[in-house]
Amino acid sequence: MRHLLTSLSVIITGLISFNTITAQENPGKSSHPQFNEFADETNFGAPSRTSATRIPFQGRLFEDGEPVNGVLSMTFSIQDIGWNETHDNVMVTNGLYSVDLGDVNPLPQSLFYGVQSHSLTINIGETELSPISIYPPYVNNTFNVTSPASWTDWNIALRGYSDGEGTGPHFGLHAVASGTHDNFGALTAANGNGMFNIGIRGLSIGQGDGSEGSWNTGVQGFARSNSWGNTGVYGWVYNDPFQGGIGTINTGVAGLSEVNDGSATIVNVGVNGDAKGSGINIGIQGQASGGAENWAGWFNGDVKITGNLIVDGDGGGNGSGFQLPDNVYIGNEEGADDKFAGQMRLSGHESINIDMGGHWHDKDLAMIYLHGNQPSEGWYYPHVKLEVEKDGENQWGSMRLYGSNGNENMHFGTYHWEPDGANRPYISMSGNSGEMIELAVRQNYDIGEEFGDLNLKSTNGAFTYLGATNLFIQGSQAPNLSLASYSNSNLPILDLYGNQPTNDGWFYNHIQLSVGEDGDQQWGAFKLWGNNGNENVLINAHHWESNDGANRPYMSMIGNEYEHARIGVGYDGNHEEQFGYLSLQGNNGHDNFVFGALHWEGTGGANRPFMQMTGNNHGQPLMWMSVNQDGQGGEHGFLSIDNSDGSSAQFRSNHISLNSNTGTNVSFGPKAEGYNDLPYLFLFGQDG
């Protein structure tokens, strides 16, 4: 046999209707058309007067000290009134069970008439548990109220009706409770199987007196005189583990307004809060805590605020939320032009985080400021500024980033001060000493083209500038390098500078590498300059000559005033021949050495070299050496050594002659052609 011990916590939550209600027409009022219309649409679902009473009952079972689990058959009996009923298949979990007494065999309406308690016996199988006492849920009172004949489908436990000609307030129900503990003027409950269970439902109908401000209020609560707090209407939804039935959606106080006559001017307000007074007034206050997600307010639709929205992100965790710094401010900001603009401010615990809205100097231009917590003259330094700016008819977006103590680090803007400059952006980056980097889109007004450029700077004055058609590197005192294109963007020029200034405020360049152009010809050129801008070396091409002169290079080496060496590739246009040449000059630019070819002699002359040496009289060569034609289809070497007085010594491959300024003095060679082994020697006098 099972030995069961029961530990019972009896919670009686059912309300037993002991009121006697006579449903008859109120003799004071012949009809209530507004009430009839409402009753046709609404079913309160209250139990009728002849319905039996049920009492929810819970308990806990133990067997040998352990909670019972399983499905049991339990019989409940109230022996002094001869009532009993058996509940099969009662689910017991961890010892806990719950039944409704009267669900199988209805309890009589007069269960507690004239008595304060009954003894309840519980049998589980053949085991009888110790009896317990049950008590009525509230003190029995009987109210006699009347209802119109059209309300025959309604069951009303309590109804109050006030009518008369008095000019003061009329109360259908007036309840007062007072004492040293909690006091409830009226406590109601709704318990049943209806779709809706409503503890209190207020209905206000009627035409009113027609005056402006006349209202109908279904439920109105007043609270006053408590020095700590007063609440007019309070709604509470809670979970009772012994009652079961946990709602998916639970609402403490709900408001519904759905008046619709087809007019677009009808205003429906679900919940309306109005607070007035000399202190802090709160029209509606919501609080949510303790859940996985907590939302003090949830809105589905548009939200309109006339005034300011201030949000305290601390949630009141360290005291009254109204004494904390404001974390969110949404409102209207008034400027000097008496125009308002929307503004929102988000704050941290100690400082402003975000300001956004219309700009102070122009409310139609948006701005967003992000602040840190560094104070500045009663405010806080911004670290990010995002703004819409305006200059005349031009508008553009700009962003500024700031470092410590308000130093501007980056600026994203435009060249709005230039024509059409609002469409040409730039980025400026600054350090502690000023702007160090500038990246921009610029305009070349001379040729009508736009280009991008980059400018890198340093604190000692040095900088690097990079554009679409030029690169410029500046040292601390003078330019270092310039790579650019001037008259033609496809022809680059590279200049390397020293630090010698020119008379016009610039600096001498010492190296230049460029691409030249002449008509349809292009070539590379190289120049070296010495001190004070003197050109030392030039490597170029004979571009001024015909027949691809740009493909025939030359190099010139220059002293302080004159060219002193030139080497190149020459061209004889008459014979269409090319040849190399070298000339060395002395003082005053006079040729000292010339190495070339006898190109003027016709075909093949460009392949017969010569060397010429000249003294101070640059018009008279003093040394000549060449490869000559011999007149017989052959070639021979020739050397002529001359004096400034006109005398000379000439050497050929088979002949030597010594000449004065008037004629030949000595001639030595073979006797005749074909007789090279038979030499001759001629000596000439003054007369030949």
Descriptive overview:
The protein has one helix at 33-41; strands at residues 4-7, 55-63, 66-67, 70-78, 83-92, 96-101, 118-124, 127-128, 132-134, 309-311, 328-334, 340-347, 352-358, 366-376, 379-391, 394-402, 408-414, 425-431, 434-444, 449-457, 463-467, 470-474, 479-484, 493-501, 507-518, 521-529, 535-541, 553-558, 563-572, 577-585, 591-597, 609-614, 621-629, 635-642, 648-652, 656-659, 664-670, 679-683. The model is unreliable at 1-52, 139-147, 315-326 and 335-339 (pLDDT under 50). The longest helix is centred in the first third of the chain and has 9 residues, at 33-41. It is rod-shaped. With 688 residues, it is mainly beta. It is built from one helix and 38 strands. A hairpin with a 2-residue loop joins strand 7 (118-124) and strand 8 (127-128). It has a 29-stranded antiparallel beta sheet, with no helix packed on it.
Features:
single chain; disordered N terminus; five-stranded antiparallel beta sheet; 688 residues; 29-stranded antiparallel beta sheet; mainly beta
Give a brief rundown of this model:
The protein has one helix and 38 strands. It is mainly β. The strands form three sheets. It has a 29-stranded antiparallel sheet, with no helix packed on it. Strands 4, 5, 7, 8 and 9 form a five-stranded antiparallel sheet that branches. Strands 1, 2, 3 and 6 form a four-stranded antiparallel sheet that branches.
List the helices and strands and how they pair.
Layout: E1 4-7, H1 33-41, E2 55-63, E3 66-67, E4 70-78, E5 83-92, E6 96-101, E7 118-124, E8 127-128, E9 132-134, E10 309-311, E11 328-334, E12 340-347, E13 352-358, E14 366-376, E15 379-391, E16 394-402, E17 408-414, E18 425-431, E19 434-444, E20 449-457, E21 463-467, E22 470-474, E23 479-484, E24 493-501, E25 507-518, E26 521-529, E27 535-541, E28 553-558, E29 563-572, E30 577-585, E31 591-597, E32 609-614, E33 621-629, E34 635-642, E35 648-652, E36 656-659, E37 664-670, E38 679-683
